[in-house]
Amino acid sequence: MTLKPSQIQDILSAKRDEFTAFSQETWQQLQQYRKMLAHLSPQGEADLLKRLKKQPHEVGARLLEPLTHAENGVVPSKLVWQNREQSLAWVRDRLTGIKTFAVDGSQIYPGKDLSIPIALVQIGWFENPHLPLGGYEKDVRVDVMTPTDLQANHSGEPVDRRVNMRRFQMETQRLVEYIQANAQAEDCLVFLDGSLVATFAEAFDAKSRQFYVDCLLELLQASETCRVPLVAYIDTSYAQDLSVMLKTLFELPESQTIHDALLLNKFMEWGDRTPLFLCQRSGILKDYEAHRDQIAFTYLKTNREGQPARLEMPVWMYEAGLSDRVIDWVRGEVIIGGGYPYVIETADQTAVLQADDRQAFYRILQDWAEQEELDLRFSRKMVSKVRRR
Question: Within this chain, do residues 124 and 96 fall inside the same structural domain, yes or no?
């Protein structure tokens, strides 16, 4: 049966007070936090650094870049154009000859349609050299995961997680390959679609958690060793590093609903960013060894309606004086993509597996199993689908 809108509306009306109370509490706390953003200005820098000096390691964030041009924690870009043609001319000035590269992935999870667990993982990548005559590279790489690959460990690891881990590994390995192939090339930018800080893995068992950390450490090390700029792009971020820093320094009330992007959004226009901060989040960063204090972040306003995106990058880029130039490259990609980096969007389109791909995979699998005389049984429903297509 379909949803009954009248029932949902009645329930929402009955619980209106709960939503109102939540909104009022959040709004009141948000005003307290935003008031403290005034300290992220030139006149507040000395006091801020003094307070930070007294804090232990895990304070959420530490100031990495001077606040010379910041006001309420925002560095204005002052980028205003009369039309799209003007903005694209600015992009050409910044990005011509700069190679941008991104990878994304997709997967077909094991299902009940097969008698044994089998999964398919595909990654796709896109390189755009931003040359006047055009040209680009777009390709895919696949892996078939066997029952051995998918075997859960003794902790009861879900099979789907192993598929996700393989996809993540393939994505980061491809990024590392590209970085190594372009060593010392500061005229290129590699995008990671997601965070360099694997907080999401804290809910997993120790072995899985370390797996994700190792993949990211390899990526961070490759970027630093090869001197190739790397930016992790998080379009919708709920990180609270800056909020935790303000709470700690100025004894603000604990809040699970106030995150950095929400806190900053009021003060930002398109193209604005925050100063660079050093990420000092509690938790998984303690496993990052030499890279524990080597991840910087900023928030960049990439569209006029939504909240700012979070950018993360290795600290070596700031120390090498590359951060401003690289952030301009990110702005350029966002302009081309209409609010989202074009190179990441295209990599996603390259990698995605559609319903037809799923049927084609099963058809290939069925033909191969028959040829090899393997006892691979398909559900009657799946056989019917494969025959029809």
Answer: yes
CB 221 within 8 A of CB 296: no
Q: Are strands 137-145 and 119-128 parallel, antiparallel or unpaired?
A: antiparallel
In a domain, 178, yes or no: yes
Domain that holds residue 364: 356-388
Sign of the Cα pseudo-torsion (331, 333, 337, 343, in order): negative
Q: Give the contacts of 233 (CB within 8 A, at least 6 positions apart).
A: 191, 192, 193, 194, 309, 310, 311, 330, 341, 344
Count of domains for the chain: 2
Q: At what angle do helices 241-250 and 16-36 cross, to 10 degrees?
A: 70
* Residue (of 318, 276, 275, 279) closest to 295 by Cα position: 279
Euclidean distance between CA atoms 154 and 133, whole angstroms: 55
Whether 44 is covered by a domain: the verdict is no
Q: 156 and 233 share a domain?
A: yes
- The answer to whether residues 293 and 315 touch, using CB atoms and an 8 Å cutoff, is yes
CB atoms within 10 A of CB 226: 18
The tens place of each residue's pLDDT in the chain, 389 residues long, gives 567 788 888 787 777 766 665 577 778 888 999 999 999 999 999 999 999 998 887 899 999 999 999 999 999 999 999 899 999 999 999 999 999 999 999 999 987 767 678 899 999 999 999 998 888 999 999 999 988 888 755 444 578 899 999 999 999 999 999 999 999 998 999 999 999 999 999 999 999 999 999 999 999 999 999 999 999 999 999 999 999 999 999 999 888 889 999 999 999 999 999 999 999 999 999 999 999 999 999 999 999 888 999 999 999 999 999 999 999 999 999 999 999 999 999 999 999 999 888 888 888 887 887 787 776 666 555 555 555 55
Task: For residues 251 and 345, state if they share a domain.
Answer: yes
Residue 25 lies in a domain: no
CATH of the domain at 124: 3.30.2170
Q: Which residue has the tokens 């190179």?
A: 343
The span from the CA of 212 to the CA of 201, in Å, is 7
Residue 215: inside a domain: yes
Do residues 139 and 234 share a domain? yes
Q: What's the pTM?
A: 0.89
